[in-house]
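Entry 14. Ran structure prediction on the chain below.
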Amino acid sequence: EDSVKSGVVAGLAGLVLVILFVLLYYRFAGLVAIVGLLINIVILFGLMAMFHFTLTLPGIAGIILTIGMAVDANVLIYERLREELAAGKSFAAALNGAYEKAFSAIFDANATTLITAVILFWQATGSVKGFAVTLTLGIIASMFSALLITRTAFRWMIDKGVLKNLTMLDLIPKRKFDFLGKRWLALVFSIILIGGSIGIFALRGTGNFGIDFLGGDLLLVDSTRAVTVAEARKAIDNPDVVIQFESTGMKELLSFRSAQGSSDQIVAKLKAAFPDRGISVIGQDTVGAQIGMEFAKRALWALGLGMVGILIYVTLRFEFSFALGALVALLHDVIITLGIFSLIGGELSLVMVGAVLTIAGYSINDTIVIYDRIREGLKQGERGSIQTLMNNSINATLGRTILTGGSTLLSVGALYFFGGAVLRDFSFAILVGIAI
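Output, structure tokens:
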């Protein structure tokens, strides 16, 4: 109950932060985007109720992530609108051009995320299925609200003469960066990070995996008066039990990882040793070793199938060389994120599989948007070398990359600070993944 409350608080905080960001940056256009976002959330809950889906804690995380990602489509449209207006078009013509040119990038970016979400739903077990459900429905609802509802609202206001122009903030520097000129430096830096990540992960070995994969008991304990790790270790007197002190932002908990079926005994020992400290059990999970191995296999299948699905889709929509580049970039982001997560002592769980697949889907979004610009430049016969065209495409979408990443960081940041202990690792992984 406490975790669900934390999830709801995180969701509301994420929603408020995203609304403020969109309003401040896009002003009246931001207000239209917010109407679309609220309708998106209503549709999402309506679909969940219609199909009798249960809202799990990772499901709440899926909704919060959807809030951040729903703004992506609006940012793409508004940044295109800015370009169309700068080209001297009338407001009505600029608006039509913005929606038409942004459509392919929005569709392809959401389709690749949808592939990973559907595969996760197919392969996942337990509460992670709830995350896949809310993410899938959220993507469908966000495309409907961004492409249909906001466009209809703008057209209605133009036809009624209510809206004649729009003003928006423009804080992204106009300087052109030579990204491709620094490719060898970037390559060396990435190889060092990837090599270090693989090394750290290999060094920790089984320490990277939680009870979802290894099997055993996981116990989360709260107390009215603090019990230190040293005190708990002395009271339990079992060197095989892993005891950690976890600060969740709202509560401070002790976690115990032990052999299967031993958590009741641990609770009894703690209550006997500290009768005046108000010991209470916050969470208790048991996973058999055989089931843990099955979870691990299904997680790897989900990740592998997600990669193959993205490779096939991008090949069909663009061409194989584009797909290969996208896959390399995606693996780059996932491997480095896992390396950083391993470095800080995090443990992989089923919920973390959802985070990794989310990073894969989100990582491909930015790549697809840039690919869309390169494809557009090739079709229009833009002058210059392929390197110049790529540089121009990355620079043209730089504002969108920063703004969409920023809006998603706001919603996931709220999840990290207010979402409670259960979703802390999940949100941290996504924060790192977006940054990488």
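The longest helix spans residues 2-50. Will compare against last week's run tomorrow.
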